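__Protein archive entry__

___
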Amino acid sequence: MSKIKKSPLLFKLLEFIFITIGAVIAAFSLEAILVPNSILDGGVTGISIIFNILFEWKLGLCIFLINIPFVYVGFKNLGWKFLIKAVYSISVFALLIELFHNVDHVTDNILLATIYGSVLLGVGVGIVIRFGGCLDGTESLGIVISKNTNFSVGQFVLFCNIVIFSVAGYFFGVDRALYSLLGYFITSKVIDEISEGFERTKAALIITEDGNLMAKHIYNKIGRTVTILKGNGLISGQKAVLYCVLTRIEISELKRIVKEEDQSAFITITDVSEIIGSHIKSNKKIRRGKNESI
């Protein structure tokens, strides 16, 4: 894998191959297991399934069209790289859903469909997310809302899904809504394991030569504030140590920024179980000082 990463073109190609594989798994789980049993996913996919069942609209087309405004929001906040991968992954996902539409149903047992369909869906979505793609744009809007309100990305996504499952309960019965909710939690857990954190906040520690310049790029490109500390390496000498709290969907963009700005930078990413106190929003002015927080 290290040799592949040294070849940017080959690594990019590998990313899109894995995004395609993830989209195949996710599309199959929906069309062959979940949708035939009226089991909903959350987010844009859940809304699209409702339209598909009620109005017989094409599921793939619904997913593609409804995602457009969310992807645009993500592009405005995360840049071109997010846009390219999001458009590719959603387009492939929507196309594959139509291709799998006539595939025989795997099972009519509602419990088996909920469990195994949700696991497969989580595997597919997790692979896509791990390699920088996106099959559901609601998180993009959640990022924007979290920057301007006290709501986290996870809280926003959960609120959207509560509304979706409530609508499902009204139209398809409480039992289908409860099965869909069970499936949602299974899918989320599988995504946690594969993409390293679906609803979890991440913390990045970056050791670099020019902390001020790196912090500016992070702030300008993904809108995240950074705390800058002074550090001394045993061999490398004086370094800048940057600490940044961000969401999982922004990790891919952060890696790209760090790689572009400082090839020698060292970065670690960890889960954050809890945040206490006020988190500085991206609309705050940059403050300079000895130990600098922007």
User: Anything to note?
Assistant: Residues 280-294 have pLDDT under 50 and may be disordered.
